[in-house]
Structure formats: structure tokens, C-alpha cells
Amino acid sequence: MRDFALEKYFSKWEFTAKYHMTASDIESMSLSELLAMSSSKDRIRFEQLWLGYTETYGHPDLRSEIAKTYETAMPSDILCFAGAEEGVYIAMRVLLNREDHAIVTVPNYQAAETIPLDICEVSGVALDEDKNWTLDIDRVKQAIRPNTKLISINFPNNPTGAVLDKERFQALVSLCRERGIYLFSDEVYRLVERDASIRLPQVADVYEKGLSLNVMSKAYGLPGLRIGWIMTRDAALLKKMECYKHYLSICNSAPSEILAIIALKAKDKILEHNRALVNHNAEKLGAFFNEFPEQFQWQRPDGGCVGFPRYLGPKDTNQFCEDLVEKTGILLLPPGIYHSELIKTPQDRFRIGFGRKNIEQGLNVFRDYLLS
């Protein structure tokens, strides 16, 4: 397997940089804060929890709560994983073989490209940078081959924050249905759109060969739980993924499952808080970039808590990001991290995150650096 460039970069900087301004999650909470949201019954269940193995598919109550976040799902349509990354890995390994072909939208989370590339031939379809990172369905259609097995998408997108418009989304689903192609949809930023009216349906709710990936890490702000899942109505495929999971995590952490149940029962309160924080930070970030129009080009993302601004300054963008973290402790993700083997990706953009609290502290240091 290829190096996971993003995680390798984070391994170096994530816990040493003073200002983590490229985080892809929303500010988390303490264990005591989460438990304060629980019912007395669930709190007792957590405190008296038996620390043995758990069910491979996930705790029945957890799968029940997850199913409630979909329009059509039954608990039996859910398979839980140790984070979203295990879900991506298993789905690709189960769905694809050497004779297949896959299509991946770019830019995307690195694993969406590199795992399929380790299995079969893969084509990249670029999001249109000049049209707010939308997806040209005709380009997808042109990339389809007789052996195309899978199309992989990610909306709201990481790193651009783009949300596909509903007409294009429906056209993509129709195209996949017409050709019998699986549609894998990374939906980890769903529910954190700037406007609920642009929110897309979840793929597995509207397509019988759709797979919807989600996780407690992003919109819910609880990455430490390491609880992710896939929803699909393809029962045979779900069983194959469950069997593959036996070789990896086997099962999820028992405490994490109970805490995820508590969080999902309190999801409305958690999401309301998280959306307010993201909106507040987006305003601060927009005002900051407006101070430096000759150095940055910024458009607020449609969803999620990361953006992909263009750097207009005199330095190479990779050098700019490296110089910034070394001199100030401000961590951004340079464009080299979003390098694709499939198509040319923009090398004048960097990823910035705006889901963490106290964004003003980092912006103040950032401002001083730019003015020095």
C-alpha cells in the first residue's frame, strides 16, 4: 500500500503544532459533558458495562439509533466499524477485484483513491474548480467502462466543502442504476451544511446499490469514540463486509458503543451546538481572508468544517504552509497532501479547518505572520 500522506503529515504535526487550523472534525467534548446528556438508565448502563467482546455488526441498540438517522434503514441494514476508515477499506476490498474498474471524484479523502488503486484500475473525475467544485455528470459518464463496478463520491466534500446540487445528484444515481454500478457515498459531513435546503439525501436511502458511509467523528464531533458505519440495503454485501471485518477490528469498543448511543439520542442538541460553532467560525474566517485579498481567494464552503482557499502570495503554497507551521505553530494542510495519481490537482490551495473553538487565537497569530 502507498503511504497515507495525510496521516503521515498529521503524525508529525497534529499534536506538536500549537494551532491546529486544518482539523477535519468539530470541537469535541469531555466524557462528563456527554454523560450529562444521557438518561439515568444509559448512564448506569455505561458505568456498569461489562468489558468483553461486542457483536461484530455493532450493539443492537447502536444500530437501532443509527437506523433512525436514515429514511428507509432498518437496524439490519447497518454494519459498524472502528471509525470510517475501516469502513472505506473493507468496502473497497469486498466490492472490487483485479478485473474491475472504479471511478473516484477528486479531490477526496486519500483512502478513497489509494485503496481502490491497490486493487484495480481507477479513473479520477475532477470536481470543477471554476464552478464551485461541482461534479460534471457527463464526465462521469465518459469515464465509465464495461467493467466499471463502483463510483465513489464525497459530499459535503473534503477538502472543498462543496455540496452537489440535487439535480446532479439524482442524475448520478440514475446513471448508476442504469448501468448497475455501486455508488459509494462518504457522507461524514452531512448535517453540517450552511443551509439545510441544500442537504442531499443519503445514497443508501434512494439507491438499492448505494452505500452510505458515516461516523461519529465529524458532524457529531466525537472522533475519540472510533465508531463509524455503512448503511446499505444490499444484505449479501453487508454480510461479506462483516466477514472481512473479522480479520481487522473484529468488533468495536464496548464503552464507545454505549457512548455513541448516548450521543445519537442527544443528536439534535449536539448538532445544533456544532452548527452554531461552525457558522461562527466561518464568519471569523471569512472576515480574516477579506483583510488579505491580495494573498488569498476564499469562498465559504457549502458544508462541513473544512475549506480549500487559494494562496496568491509570492511563495510556493507548499513552502508557505511549511514556513507557517515552523515559524508560528499554525498547522495547515499543504496541497502536496492532496496530490492525486489520477489527475492533476490544484497546487495553489491548502486545507483550513474551522470546526474547533477559539479560532481567533490562531487567526491573530496568522495575521501577525502575514503582516511581519
From TrEMBL:
CDD domains linked to this entry: AAT_like
Domain (Aminotransferase class I/classII large): residue spans on this chain: 48-354
Keywords: Aminotransferase, Transferase
InterPro entries cross-referenced by the UniProt entry: Aminotransferase_I/II_large, PyrdxlP-dep_Trfase, PyrdxlP-dep_Trfase_major, PyrdxlP-dep_Trfase_small
An MF annotation (GO) of this entry: pyridoxal phosphate binding
Gene3D superfamilies named in the record: Aspartate Aminotransferase, domain 1 (3.90.1150.10), Type I PLP-dependent aspartate aminotransferase-like (Major domain) (3.40.640.10)
EC number, as in UniProt: 2.6.1.1
Pfam (any one): Aminotran_1_2
Name this protein carries in UniProt: AspC4
Organism, as annotated: Desulforapulum autotrophicum (strain ATCC 43914 / DSM 3382 / VKM B-1955 / HRM2) (Desulfobacterium autotrophicum)
